[in-house]
Amino acid sequence: MTDRVKKVVLAYSGGLDTSIILRWLQETYGCEVVTFTADLGQGEELEPARRKAEMAGVKEIYIEDLREEFVRDFVFPMFRANALYEGVYLLGTSIARPLIAKRQIEIARATGADAVCHGATGKGNDQVRFELGYYALAPDIRVIAPWRIWDLDSRSKLLAFAEAHQIPIAKDKRGEAPFSVDANLLHTSSEGKVLEDPAQEPPDYVYQRTVAPEDAPDTPTYVTVAFERGDAVAVDGQRLTPAALLARLNALGGPNGIGRLDLVENRFVGMKSRGVYETPGGTILHSAHRAIESLTLDRGAAHLKDELMPRYAELIYNGFWFSPEREMLQSLIDKSQEAVTGEVRLKLYKGNVTVAGRSSPNSLYSEAHVTFERDSVYDQRHAEGFIRLQALRLRLLAQRNGRLRG
Fold first, then answer.
1. Core-most of 244, 260, 291, 395, by most CB within 10 Å?
2. Domains annotated on the chain, with CATH
3. What are the residue numbers of the active site?
């Protein structure tokens, strides 16, 4: 006997899997289903999701454009930290999940729902990210994860269920999809099927947002990104909203082959997986942000940030966006950004992002101190005492070790 569920908010794309989940929820729990579809810049038409939900008898349908909130309140705070998971991954899927979870909980409260549901499988990271978000915001919420409990454990069973319940199946969905795709304004992620053998180069058709670097233009593209307090605010002198700015950088990076990554990563659940990512605008933004920080951050602050970054990135990857430790680290990171203002000029060329110049009204760079010419601000004789003090413990250690060997 299934535990009673009154109303459930389903994260709904309108695709085959979530359409099956919608009907399965109605049959299994006899409950009312509220659908929530988020526009995070995935580049798909979302109105078909409304029509499919209406055909399934759904009365409360939420389709929301969350692009600005996504970039402003999630992507930009993460980029202030220069976050890279395992040194390379810009966390495009990871950072989208807490926003979806947040809105599901808000919709559950608004509609009186007592449960939420996601379509993530029991093998991946997304189930963890969604559910940690749910429980952090609504500790008593009921969570339904169909892939962990139903018996539709094969493609043939899913298709048979869809046909039996007259769920429309697109022609390209009847066969095995060549790989799985997740997309939003920050990136695209492709994994599974043809990508499961990490020894094999990804087929060209996997890439959707970037041209191959060797096919990119033979002349470089220059772009200038302006920052205020750690956040990008303008491209080539034009002030843009956060989402519009990231879209603009995507439009510049994609044709230049910027932002491809083929990664074997460590999932939180314990297994390794191979993913192919495209993050054109994010790659440009990351390089630009580090460049402006190189002028404006004190050495101690910059190095401390670099030490903390792997921990911060791991928290996001593992789904702990709403944890106190992530929020504590965010406060420290945001404090470091108070003077991170200025402009960075970058050269985009055949898959590479090169810093071509940077300037800031808050720059700590002093040409007077570092010049190779004669100066009047730095007495080089002072370096001798500095070095001798730094060497004191090494000299004492060497003297002791010499006595021990003697």
1. 291
2. 7-67+95-176 (3.40.50.620), 181-297+339-359 (3.90.1260.10)
3. 17, 97, 126, 180
